[in-house]
Amino acid sequence: MLILNGKDVAKEVRATLVPRVASFKEKNGRAPHLSVVIVGEDSASQVYVKNKKLACEAVGMTSTIHALPVQVSQQELNEKIRKLNSDPLVDGILVQFPLPKHLCAEEVLKLISESKDADGLTYMSMGHLLAGNPLVNPCTPAGVMTILRHYGLSVEGLKVVVVGRSNIVGKPMALMLNAANATVTICHSKTVNLSSYTRAADLVVVAAGKARMLGKEDFKQGAIIIDVGIHRDGPNGKLCGDVRFEELQGWAKAATPVPGGVGPMTIATLLQNTCWLAEQKAGLHKT
Ligand code: GUN
Description:
The chain has 287 residues and is α/β, with parallel strands linked by helices. It has 2 domains: 30-113, Leucine Dehydrogenase, chain A, domain 1 (Rossmann fold); 139-263, 3-Layer(aba) Sandwich (Rossmann fold). The protein contains 9 helices and 11 strands. The chain has helices at residues 6-28, 43-58, 74-86, 105-111, 123-130, 139-150, 170-179, 194-198, 263-281; strands at 2-3, 33-39, 62-68, 92-95, 159-163, 183-187, 203-206, 224-227, 231-233, 238-240, 254-255. Helix 2 crosses helix 9 (263-281) and helix 6 crosses helix 9 (263-281). Guanine is lined by residues 94-97, 119, 139-140, 168, 266.
């Protein structure tokens, strides 16, 4: 079985960004800049946000974390986003999810300027993706497409099942695979007899959010399996995915491990998106 090593692919993506960032800096007198907004004290989110900042700095980009208190009002959050939208030194904006319950993510996703949408999750970016003319693609599904491309795994003509229909992963993943000429079925928590779908698929992307939910018996022999899940499992809190990876050896054609599969690609794609937005704003993509 081919192990799809997202850590290696992410490293390669970051290496391509170093000269791009240096060239942007030379032309513009500053590095591409990502502003990250985090609300509240959620410890997992704090770790993600810190890692995003460190990853920016590792390729020569700059990043600011805007930490807002948990009780911040929607108006105050909106005001922060408007300020970042109009700041000429900000190229990319990301509001870390989940937000505290009293805040509305939809409002945030309508407000962030499409020209600064580093996450590719705003209504405008999603609309462009749906229309088949994407600007910035959502980071996790775009990272999956990069892994497949890196390993020369074409999806054209494949029967693909996406398990999960979230706005962050499942829905955009299905659209991107469809755009790459796969025949895509979306399954979800209300799907009856899920494994009858996954067992018929040449490629399965699992983004169900349930630890170790699918195993060997749920997949066709020779299938490609992409695991987007990340959970802490068992008494020692070991990281695991939505798939029982250890069962796939000798059965699947290729699969992503957890950790070290899709996870590292999310941040690498965020950096790519931010760099692209900065170049776009500076007119570097115009012919
Ligand atoms: N929380 C979990 N995944 C993501 C993501 O891709 N973007 C944002 N903004 N928040 C997240």
